[in-house]
């Protein structure tokens, strides 16, 4: 008689903690808007008008570049269609931005959906880990460029010491994380997971066999790495263009260099607060502080953050609505990871 595997344990405290962080972030964002003035921020936001649709299309173009980066990274080992990586990337972003999953749940879902469409589960998960690593390295370069531009623009800004310290800390951590993925420690971690899967009869986890090998294989593809980094860099820099466009539409245009500084450092703050769903509060606070250093009035800085969130809602809600149909397609085909 086969013993059924134990059901997955729920973690209500973890979910409650993430929900509490989301609520605190939302309260902070509302407070910042209220402190600035609902009417002033609302008027600045309304200036975008129907331009929100244009900004959403701009967002989708940038996300398409991120999807192409993922595909380029994996292509030497599995040649999937570009549209598949782009669509799943849209869903990854929607889940991370709009659901209480600490900005990483969408990546896990993306790996599962990719595995259901061809590559082994270990390769699909490895591709997401490598893609996320390359994306973060691209963001680090983007943030560093924004920091250097801020020094040139506002060399006396009070923000410089804190940002500089953050870069000094994060840089070695990123390099260490990249090295860890190629080390024997990661291989040992994989063996621990597989041993745990065998003891618990956890079939899903057992499919991770070969994860370390898949990761090292991905990192041995220089062309894929270069293309992935290039596509992600284009996607990051495109964010500065989105800020430029949004402020133009709202009637408070600023130069592209200042838009680059605002977006690069603002998104760095949001990423640093990754445990807060959607970076609620962190993005608004960062735009307020950095925008103030660049001479952007607070109502426009906060309205800009709201415009970016409205754009995420415009494409994110349809993607979340399509999610069950995408999963149903996987189940109807009888495709399982691995």
Quickly list its features.
78% helix, 14 helices, disordered N terminus, 338 residues, single chain, disordered C terminus
What does this structure look like?
With 338 residues, the chain is an all-alpha fold. Helices cover 78% and strands 0% of the residues. The protein contains 14 helices and no strands.
Structure described in brief:
The protein is mostly helical and 338 residues long. The protein is 78% helix and 0% strand.
Tell me the layout of helices and strands:
Elements: H1 12-36, H2 38-46, H3 51-74, H4 82-98, H5 105-115, H6 121-153, H7 160-181, H8 184-200, H9 203-206, H10 211-219, H11 222-250, H12 256-272, H13 282-293, H14 298-332
